[in-house]
Amino acid sequence: MSEWNLKETLLDKEDVFDGTLLHVERWRAQLPNGAIATREMIRHVGASAIVPVDGEGNVYLVRQYRAPIARETLELPAGKLDSKAEDRLQAAKRELEEETGLRAKEWVKLADMAAAAAYTDEIVSIYLARGLEKGEAHLDDDEFLRVVKMPLRELCDMAASGKIQDSKTLCGSLLAERYIGGEHAIEPENCQ
Amino acid sequence: MSEWNLKETLLDKEDVFDGTLLHVERWRAQLPNGAIATREMIRHVGASAIVPVDGEGNVYLVRQYRAPIARETLELPAGKLDSKAEDRLQAAKRELEEETGLRAKEWVKLADMAAAAAYTDEIVSIYLARGLEKGEAHLDDDEFLRVVKMPLRELCDMAASGKIQDSKTLCGSLLAERYIGGEHAIEPENCQ
Prior knowledge:
Chains A, B: Residues 42-172 form the Nudix hydrolase domain. Two copies of one chain form a homodimer. Chain A has 192 residues and is of the alpha+beta class.
């Protein structure tokens, strides 16, 4: 697609911080004009997130505390992959049941979202899950969250009025509304 | 809004990595059950992003290379704040003109998006900009990007079919479409 070459060439890289949760690499890269630039980035295993929508158009969310932004958030159920190799749909199924106690019969991939492409390789795969049925919730020991159910339309209205902060929840709710709306749009009697 | 206390209490924090671009803090926090947990997080100055839409419904985007995900992306014009204290709307105006050579007469805040609330405090303020007029592009020395113009509707269709990865671009395009659609929806003749 490019007429211009925008690509950077990786010259070398090193681990510069290896924490409990975060892993930082420093890259030396050659820019399109030949100059050398430093790039620091978080290596992340990746994550899956779920927009679980029931037959009445309700979505199930989790309310939790997020220390980096010092506030509670309302978010899609989500979790990290167990490893880079883990199947993302399997991870979505596991996280949905762990966090909400729900299973789903119908799964649709909505997006692979790069959370912050400037400094992390984290990709969040976002799925629409329908055909919900009861499973078993079982949170990790250090997980504290509360399940909240509301109409998807209401969540999207909250997103549109600045009441949702979390990036995957903004993307997932709006994509799900557009996807479901698109299905409905093929039935012209819905337009009045 | 909470019946339960989900909040973590910060006990102490230290700088554990101070790089050229990334700054990592390690926090010790007390969980709601009294247990102590470690939190590592990226401190980020924050950013502003713009959905610039012209009178014909076209949006202006930038194509650039993102080393962490090793690919070119199509993104909203955006940039970091100069400091935590910088006015976010002023930063949006500066970045729009620097990256696209456009100025705008009408600005609407669409969202304050937490890019990755699990491990960074980065908030991206996303603005809809209309009433576009020509200004002067002037990129930073290490910025390589190409401006792309397309119908906002086409960008949203790309978002809905997995062709957009960047989180702020997914959020901003869908919020702008919903916002503009909402304005149009008050004109019933648009529904056919």
